[in-house]
């Protein structure tokens, strides 16, 4: 076609181009225009897919080809609440480094000392990945959602001492009271099954409000068949809402949240409800503080300063631009409530469920230790030190529970560092990072997940079996015990590890010690393997969102 008009020797290139375009324009019919409109994006998508598959710097990393081409694959598994399992299957099929998205790489460190894992989560001080943008509270930042390592480190310094082991130990009397009240509630239920998942939520709401604001919510005390706790129901809804908001684009969510159904409206506004409830506590505290009702106990050894007191004390001691606004204080407090209540309730529910289905001799082993440590049935006579250091069987039960049914065993994403982030001597270098022999360019989303770490056959023999004895074997060699400890990461890893782990550990042990000292536990007919299957929202939950167990007072 071009040759009719185009003579290289007599026409300039510019004239030739103009003629060519004119020629094309005259030959365009509505059909060819339509075809081009359809074909153009298709050609673009195909070239993009081919580029991602064959020309991306991540092309050499094994993994399903459809995952390399588009994020749809991982999105689909997120929607099916099975992302963690899909990634685990990839490790089994493709090995320890897998490309699970066009720009995302998952790894499972085969080293027993977890060197690569430690490099990624600790040494390199990496930023978090983009998924954390979805967990903002009412548009406000808080420590879980802060992406940049440096910003986070500064923020965390304001309150990390609140969660130190020694400060959390001061909350032990409240933990004991909550555990005793839970036992009383179980006794009141007579022979009826008790939903321990619900009960633990109430325990944790009370404890976290006590630790944060010094406030007695009395959520557990008010627990009855018909009771309704606004914080409890908002937390339940919000876990699912976060998942939806993480997947659905903002504009679409803004549209669908208008759907005029009362339950749907309550669900969609669960974040606002929780935020407003916590904001109320923050404002009340400020009012009382302004009125001189709170003298500082920050430096007191006996008194336990509340979390909110620490935030205000920070404001007193810094320049105005570093001060936290009331919204930021609310958002931070709310994030601790959300991170702590669900996770601890899920953990205790699975541990009690596992206890209920253990052979008699295992149950006996656990209870014999508690009988010895707490000779007086019905009262929590244990001090903090004994609870933490002298109950190896209870310790093994908790470790095994968190290994197999950890509430947050999910892919914890980080961003591969740019040149300025890679410290000398590490395996990060100017053109990216070396992960188990693969070069990872800056900006790639990388991470691992404790779900898979906890199921390593070479570290935890028979990993799917719930077996507390693996943590107790005195004569097993030290290397295997060390390897298990290194690969055990239910509270996350490195610089962004769970800040509330001592609170969680204390509350779990206190409740479990007293409940198992007082009751024999069995499954109720409505609780079984199927209802206790784990589904993944951001963390894991029993699919039935309950854990009904029968508690029989021990003779
Ligand atoms: C058994 C109970 C718990 C488990 C298994 C657990 C697990 C985790 C994990 C895996 C992370 C890391 C998430 C990540 O890297 O994105 C995390 C972070 C966090 N957890 Fe927990 N958690 C528990 C209880 C608690 C409690 C009781 C609180 C507070 C009262 C809490 C507050 C937090 C906060 C604030 C973070 C964010 C830390 C940061 O980025 O600096 N957690 N938790």
Automatic annotation (TrEMBL):
One of its GO terms (cellular component) is membrane. Pathway: Secondary metabolite biosynthesis; terpenoid biosynthesis. Its cofactor is heme. It is found in: Membrane. Pfam families: p450 (PF00067). Heme binds at residue 498. One of its GO terms (molecular function) is monooxygenase activity. Keywords: Heme, Iron, Membrane, Metal-binding, Monooxygenase, Oxidoreductase, Transmembrane, Transmembrane helix. Belongs to the cytochrome P450 family. This is Cytochrome P450. It comes from Lentinula raphanica.
